[in-house]
Amino acid sequence: MAAEHCSPRTSGARRRHPFLSFTLMAALLSFVCAGPAVVLAEGGTIVFHVANRCPFPVWPASAPNTGHPVLAGGGFLVPPGKSRRVAAPATWNGRFWARTGCNFTSNGGAAGAGCLTGDCEGRLACNGSVGTPPATLVEVSLHEDPTKGSSYDVSLVDGYNLPVSVVSSKSDEGRCDIAGCAKDVNAACPPELQVVATTGGGGSKAKAEVVACKSACLAFGLDAFCCRGAYATPDACRGSVYSRMFKDACPAYYSYAYDTTAATASGCAAQEYVITFCPNRWGGDQQQLDAGHGAAQI
Ligand SMILES: *[C@@H]1O[C@H](CO)[C@@H](O)[C@H](O)[C@H]1NC(C)=O
Ligand SMILES: *[C@@H]1O[C@H](CO)[C@@H](O)[C@H](O)[C@H]1NC(C)=O
């Protein structure tokens, strides 16, 4: 896999920590504004093509880190087979994820419970709010300086809802490609980590399904799983039977906070990136640059 050529970043685990406590805090408070009141960025210099190859609609969302603007209202619908272009300032920092099973009113408010996974207060446009975990997170740090380049990774530190790939539009940047998953984590998810919801509406198609899989840290909140307290070093926090389940399904992603085997794309200088949910239906290691460019834009 191309992403394995990325040099491991020793600061990577340390960098995960603020994020980890932040999302846990977000879970406790049910919502947190991830950024201050900054007006929408249009005409930025980096473009993300957010593509949906899942056989169902997804509602991708993004939340900026503090001091960075909200992109594209923070959330939108992408029907199966479609993609949406999202422009970002060349120095943007934040995250992308996808919401599933959403039910919004015509004005973008909550109908019923909002989304089954990744929900942000039941709103279509998250407007800077982070989603409710568990949801697969694409963590992005753009750099204007091309000699530094941009970096990004995919994190299951709080858990998983969908597979995602991130691919650079520069053909010479294979090390900037992060592959999807080899297996559907929701199918492999042990009962104690499962998020089960009724899908298919209220009619005869309704069924209980595993829609997401919590990380052990999110499910149990123990220092040993969350790499906190006595476990706050890479040596002390070496993963668990649970993180190995995530790793087995999605080798390129962070499976726990101090995962040193994850693919971090760094020094990436492309102007365009393709973020594809369900890159190969349920993953697979095939790189799918076509996914975004080939899909009809909405
Ligand atoms: C979006 O968030 C900003 C900053 O918190 C706030 O001023 C604005 O009213 C929000 N917009 C909507 C539509 O909620
Ligand atoms: C969406 O929410 C409305 C209002 O709660 C409910 O009547 C409807 O059945 C929901 N639709 C689906 C597909 O869940």
How is this structure best summarized?
This protein is an alpha+beta fold and 298 residues long. The chain has helices at residues 12-29, 185-188, 216-220, 223-226, 241-249, 289-294, and strands at 46-52, 59-64, 82-88, 93-99, 137-141, 150-155, 159-160, 164-168, 194-199, 207-214, 265-268, 272-277, 296-297. The protein binds 2-acetamido-2-deoxy-beta-D-glucopyranose (2 copies).
Brief descriptors of the model:
single chain, 298 residues, alpha+beta, Thaumatin, five-stranded mixed β-sheet, five-stranded antiparallel β-sheet, 6 helices, 24% strand, globular, disordered N terminus, binds 2-acetamido-2-deoxy-beta-D-glucopyranose
Q: How is this fold's topology laid out?
A:
Layout (H helix, E strand, L loop, with lengths): L11 H18 L16 E7 L6 E6 L17 E7 L4 E7 L37 E5 L8 E6 L3 E2 L3 E5 L16 H4 L5 E6 L7 E8 L1 H5 L2 H4 L14 H9 L15 E4 L3 E6 L11 H6 L1 E2 L1
Parallel strand pairs: 1-12, 3-13
Antiparallel strand pairs: 1-3, 2-4, 4-5, 5-6, 6-11, 7-10, 8-12, 9-10
One 2-acetamido-2-deoxy-beta-D-glucopyranose (NAG) binds next to loops.
**What is the helix tally?**
6
According to CATH, what is the class? Mainly Beta
Instruction: Point out poorly predicted stretches.
Output: 1-44, 282-294
Bound molecules: 2-acetamido-2-deoxy-beta-D-glucopyranose
The helix content, as a percent range, equals 10-25%
Compute the number of strand runs.
13
State the major sheet: 5 strands, mixed
What name does CATH use for the topology?
Answer: Thaumatin
Find the structural class using helix and strand composition.
alpha+beta
Q: Give the averaged pLDDT, no decimals.
A: 82
What is the architecture at the second tier of CATH?
Answer: Sandwich
Q: Tell me the overall shape.
A: globular
